[in-house]
């Protein structure tokens, strides 16, 4: 995998930084694992904008990724690595011994021809998925379940990982990339290793049009609006004379917005302050 800086042959190419991975499949994706993906333009069924900055963009198919990894005891071979437009991580097409194919998140270091397996008897090896009660303390994992059998929810984006720091009875303690320490049931599954494509954070799109291709519309600053459109609007010059707030008046800096008190008991330590 290489990070390539483009030559400034035009203003739009001048700042482009691309991540090139020659191992990615250059053909079409595996059709039986594709699903349609409809566009909303950020509108609800009444035609009103409910989410701003959404619209346009290239047509995409959704790739059905196996986050549950529940084919226990059946070895699989990695056929190829593929690009997925729906996430920052790459995905791997794996062929199980019983003939079924599935997409999984591609961990760092996984390549075509490698063997992987799921289940309690799986070895501690990159790409294998097993319950966290069978994974040694100190291991780096990704695609972690929050509830047994629900499928992985934590550490799924490019380059992300979680470390198992302790095991106590029915729970394991995890250290997340944010600094948060959290308890999860030890019967929950996780995949060994970290998610691949960690260079994703180094890419630079280079021009506004590349963001539009991804279906993201422009963001207008509140201070550039009129008072009727935003609390920051109007005024003389560039000052808006109040604490920064959202378009709906909620404080934008420092206000705690977490409301799920039910799971507070599982958080051992809050995330690091930025």
From TrEMBL:
One GO-annotated biological process of the protein: cytoplasmic translation
Keyword Nucleotide-binding: no
Biased composition (Polar residues): 39-49
Superkingdom per UniProt: Bacteria
GO molecular function, one term: rRNA binding
Entry annotated with the keyword Ribonucleoprotein: yes
SUPFAM superfamilies for this protein: Nucleic acid-binding proteins, Translation proteins SH3-like domain
GO cellular component: large ribosomal subunit
Residue ranges that the Swiss-Prot or TrEMBL entry lists as coiled coil: none
Keywords: Ribonucleoprotein, Ribosomal protein, RNA-binding, rRNA-binding
Pfam families: Ribosomal_L2_C, Ribosomal_L2_N
Start and end residues of each stretch annotated as Disordered: 28-54, 221-274
Domain Large ribosomal subunit protein uL2 C-terminal, residue spans: 124-251
Domain Large ribosomal subunit protein uL2 RNA-binding as annotated: residue spans: 42-118
Subunit field text: Part of the 50S ribosomal subunit. Forms a bridge to the 30S subunit in the 70S ribosome.
Family to which the UniProt record says this protein belongs: Belongs to the universal ribosomal protein uL2 family.
Biological role: One of the primary rRNA binding proteins. Required for association of the 30S and 50S subunits to form the 70S ribosome, for tRNA binding and peptide bond formation. It has been suggested to have peptidyltransferase activity; this is somewhat controversial. Makes several contacts with the 16S rRNA in the 70S ribosome.
Protein name: Large ribosomal subunit protein uL2
Chain's gene name: rplB
